[in-house]
User: What shape does this take?
Amino acid sequence: MIRFFTKPQNISNGTILLSREDSEHIRSLRLRPGEFFVVCDENGNDYICKLEEQINTGGQNKNSVAQIIEKRVSNAEPSVKCTVYMAYSKGDRLDYAVQKSVELGATEIVLFASKRCVAVPSNIPKKTERLQRISLETAKQSGRGIVPMVSDGGGFKDILDIIKPDEASLCSTTTRAILFYEDESQIHLKDVLELNERSSPDISSYSIITGPEGGFDLSEIYLAKTKGFAIVSLGNRILRSETAPVVALSAIMYQTGNL
Amino acid sequence: MIRFFTKPQNISNGTILLSREDSEHIRSLRLRPGEFFVVCDENGNDYICKLEEQINTGGQNKNSVAQIIEKRVSNAEPSVKCTVYMAYSKGDRLDYAVQKSVELGATEIVLFASKRCVAVPSNIPKKTERLQRISLETAKQSGRGIVPMVSDGGGFKDILDIIKPDEASLCSTTTRAILFYEDESQIHLKDVLELNERSSPDISSYSIITGPEGGFDLSEIYLAKTKGFAIVSLGNRILRSETAPVVALSAIMYQTGNL
Assistant: This one.
């Protein structure tokens, strides 16, 4: 069923007032009054709705009104919250990485610049805005219960500080902050995730960090290690920068029973 | 290190005669005699080589000759052989799915037409040739020990016959042929793979089947079931047709210790 997102404040008295953009979309889809679709409140609730007449909200603008038939908790949200920190990379690689991360159930996506980044955008707000739109469209298509936020985290050192210290493994037996490094050959993701499952089965969030085309600089790896981040391999094949977050998310969702 | 592939017959007396295409590439890269690169024999062997002078092989054509310094077994090939059967789909979705499947270690890729395919190419040989080139380029970049073959398997019924019956689960406790279906909600990949690991730890190959944008037709699911194929979910989020094989391969490589 076609899916839209709305803010909770647009839901009242058993009806939902859709945005002008979504109302435009409904017209372009030739949906008629009486037809059904889903509206999600971005908090994990799905509302099965029936289209009512469009109402005039001033000028040429018409907003569609949806009558709520049934409220359901979205079953699409994974039990584990994954925040993906991905380095800026070239061309449409980030578009792809964001789209696939949202499909796979990422909670949030944070972009950052690192030493070997070859393509930090000159206009970062414009870039994140574009990627936020991709997140919204993908959330609709994949049936998500939220729209993952896409934001800029600054530089590599900044994101190491953003990620809460207790997410790193220095002071605990669990590793919730994992940095993937192409030159790491000893520590594998399966070992880390299975150890976490045994040592703290109630683990509910992961932060994963993936690098740019050029990979991480050794000084960045040292810094992450001193801060207690797990430096982990994604196998013996060289993965492209946009592939790594998708593979890491797939593995975490698989291990935590969300695939 | 830069990587090329060659046929075993081009390797003799400690030297390798590179193809004209690769020799062109070497010239475009400005590689000089004495510089090092890797040549793989497509059988999982890597040869660390030193560039010698180029020799004239008639007309304007010059082929590069590589002196073998060291032979190593490629460590990039996974311990499990995965053949990916993917339905034809629109635009560049297959390009993407093939590239990512090769990065993740797929052994072979077979394309097929199913009932809801919206885009079966009019010129299939041209399409598979293009995808084979993508496979070669990706195999070079990701450091593979083979170049996965891309071929056309015909229709859905044809590929069910191509896949050996003993790969299906009807007559055994192991499931090596897995079809991913968006409407399946009970059987999860983790259950299947973990059961296989317990019941036959020596399992060495999987066949995975993913559908087109429109998904599989119910009649196709019934047919696969009667032939003993496992019909398996990839989670509660709707994955795009090009995403499903990547997620399935990631999970299998993860579970089998190849990530």
Observations:
- Chain A touches chain B at residues 75-76, 78, 96, 100, 103-105, 141-144, 188-190, 233-240, 243, 246-247, 250-251, 253-255, 257-259 (CB under 8 Å).
- The two ends of chain A are 21 Å apart (CA to CA).
- Chain A is about 30% helix and 25% strand.
